[in-house]
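#onboarding

Welcome to the new folks! Below is a worked example of what a typical request in this channel looks like: someone posts a single protein sequence, and someone else replies with the predicted structure as tokens. Don't worry about understanding the tokens yet, we'll cover that in week two.

Example request:
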Amino acid sequence: MFRFLKRLTAKLRQRWKPRKKAKSKPTPKPRRRHSFDARTKKNLDTLHPKVKNTFIALTEIAMAIGRKYGVTIKMISAHRSMEEQKKLYNKGRYGNPGPIVTTVKVSRHCFQIAADYGCFGKNGSYLDGSDSTLTAKIYTEIYKQAQKEGLPIIHGGTWKSFPDYPHFEYKNNLTISQMKEIARKGQEVV
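Example response:
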């Protein structure tokens, strides 16, 4: 009887012994559903490496929604130098011609974590200036889909004082002042 119990407990221990997990393979990069135009690719390459995949996913969402509306959506701007941002800020100010296009002297574009998109019609015309109601609707839908998919994105269209519908930025929970200080120390903002 004692031998029987000894064998039984040995068998039970083998059955209930935690099994070694198989080595997990690294997850492959998601396969792209759309091919990007040269301008979009160029702008994606200027983004911070840690946010690039987020913006690739956002661009794919944008392209799918654009097809639904019969428009082409491209990433028209991403990283900007401080000097380029200063030039944009000066537009429409200090006697410079043109409308005011930004309210900030230092943008998240300068830290490689923001991008602007553009909607283009079938003939290649830029729709953001000619049909802002349609494009605002498209950008809002892009943002809602990005939220559903869990992308850490902030949409400029949600801003109360100066809505910027084509603008999307990576959510890093830092203010511009904090990012300037971090960058001054030579550290990354993401």
